[in-house]
Amino acid sequence: MASAEKHHYVPRFYLNGWTTQDESQALRLTRFQWKGGKFLAERVVPRSTACLDRLYSLEGVPIQDQQRIETDFLARIIDNPAGGVLHHMRTAGPRHDLKQEQRVAWTRFIMSLRIRSPEIVEQLNAEAPAELRKNLENDPEEYDTLAEEGDPETLLEFVEKEAPGFIDDFGKRLLPRLIMDDKAFKRIHQMHWWSGDFSDSKVSLLTSDHPVIIMPGIDHPGCVLALPISPTLAFFACPDERVVQFVLNWNRTSLVEWLNATVVRLASEQVYAIDDCQAEFVRNLLRMPTVD
């Protein structure tokens, strides 16, 4: 049923890379989080974490259309193609050579991870409807010249009548447009790409509910974009070949430690690992939620 839809803001196919089989043969990963003032390290299945009920559901449309952002956009256009690319990168290792359509799919996936989080959705839901109402109330004279007899008195009232719920859902409706932003897409797509193999590192790679690292900024000529893709592999992109060489020459374990520290600091609530060996490391860096 639509009312029971769970929407993953960190997709299961991505989290599966940190799973191992338990005694019941179930694939689980280790999830670190603060809850009720306690730091927890729990073994969980990917389908039960990094998800919220109806996170992307539209409320002002018929029930058969409520999940279309999740099913028609995120699943079909973003996650399904990216899942194949991720499988290829994990199996091919650092020697992978992505085709054009794979680069497009992977770029879209990276952009989605930056936008689809509960925090961004909450912000859009809080700000976008009010901004749209404000814009609809601008230039009332223009509407007056176009309105026909029997139409509502204002454009705002017209939209509320003809498209009930559209304004309240406007924040979620912006998600596809933000994820498909051409400027950010071109910036990432044109960077130098490679994967780092950290099988020889003393510590494994962590990930989190905000796993994409972009420092100092996507428009900076010295930008470094990084995304852990397994406990031993990380994806990198840089616009400058000199920065690429700097990263490649970094000590392997030191680079993993930097990646892990950054991923944990970027996390909103949850960090994921293949085991609990780095529990103390995560505990010291993961922000404790503020109590309202």
UniProtKB/TrEMBL annotation:
Annotated Pfam families: DUF4238
InterPro entries for this protein: DUF4238
Domain of life: Bacteria
Protein name per the record: DUF4238 domain-containing protein
Source species: Paraburkholderia dioscoreae
